[in-house]
């Protein structure tokens, strides 16, 4: 565990906490894409199947369980408790266009052709694009609440910090996983436009509003 | 890089 990875994990955790707090405090999930949240739940459940087969550390197990459980709680809040506030009309991204290619790619390009490894690879590919429905929703409504922007910034930073972690591990431990690195690059690049708007607008106290 | 597929990251 190096500092980049720890900061990445913490950033990921902070993102989830911000999202849950936003929904809970405002009693509303307006502006949040339920489709992205479903994709994240699929990502965690398929990636962390190794909870049953491999033990890495208490930290590792704890975080995996937190990610799986909070993603399920989020889906419950959006589709049951605060369903009335959910932005159905704007959340129209077709997630099968992300799930199916990720699955096909995972079947073709993986480290090992076993069920658990293909599902791990699928989750890595799917995670890299899982934010697209959310970004699509923001672009459709043309704006995002500050709290949603903070959530997106923390969530986007997490894989960016992982990239630094992989550079570090390459030099310090001679360890690298090309699948994770390429997917992590794609994932971070997808956030670049948002990062720019976040730094130039939200951090200066303005609302995140897209140019008309 | 060893070809073990244990993933120690999240």
UniProtKB/TrEMBL annotation, chain A:
Keyword Thylakoid set for record: no
A GO cellular component annotation in the UniProt record: endoplasmic reticulum membrane
GO biological process: protein retention in ER lumen; protein transport; vesicle-mediated transport
Any GO MF annotation of the entry: ER retention sequence binding
Entries under Pfam families matching the protein: ER_lumen_recept (PF00810)
Membrane topology type: Multi-pass membrane protein
Superkingdom: Eukaryota
Protein name per UniProt: ER lumen protein-retaining receptor
Organism: Bombus terrestris (Buff-tailed bumblebee)
């Amino acid at each position: 565990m190096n500092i980049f990875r720890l900061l990445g994990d913490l950033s990921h955790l902070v993102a989830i906490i911000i999202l849950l707090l936003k929904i809970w405090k405002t009693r509303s999930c307006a502006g949040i894409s339920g489709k992205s949240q479903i994709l994240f739940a699929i990502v965690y459940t398929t990636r962390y199947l190794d909870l049953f087969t491999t033990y890495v550390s208490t930290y590792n197990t704890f975080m995996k369980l937190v990610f799986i459980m909070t993603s399920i709680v989020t889906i419950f809040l959006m589709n049951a408790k605060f369903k009335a506030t959910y932005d159905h009309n704007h959340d129209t991204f077709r997630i099968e266009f992300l799930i199916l290619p990720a699955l096909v790619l995972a079947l073709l390009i993986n480290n090992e052709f076993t069920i658990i490894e293909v599902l791990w690879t699928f989750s890595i590919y799917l995670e890299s694009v899982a934010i697209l429905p959310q970004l699509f929703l923001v672009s459709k409504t043309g704006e995002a609440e500050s709290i949603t922007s903070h959530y997106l910034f923390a969530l986007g930073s997490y894989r960016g910090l992982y990239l630094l972690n992989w550079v570090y591990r390459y030099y310090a431990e001679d360890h690298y996983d090309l699948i994770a690195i390429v997917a992590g690059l794609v994932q971070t690049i997808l956030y670049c436009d948002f990062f720019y708007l976040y730094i130039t607008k939200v951090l200066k106290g303005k609302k995140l509003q897209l140019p008309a | 890089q060893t070809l073990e597929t244990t993933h120690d990251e999240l």
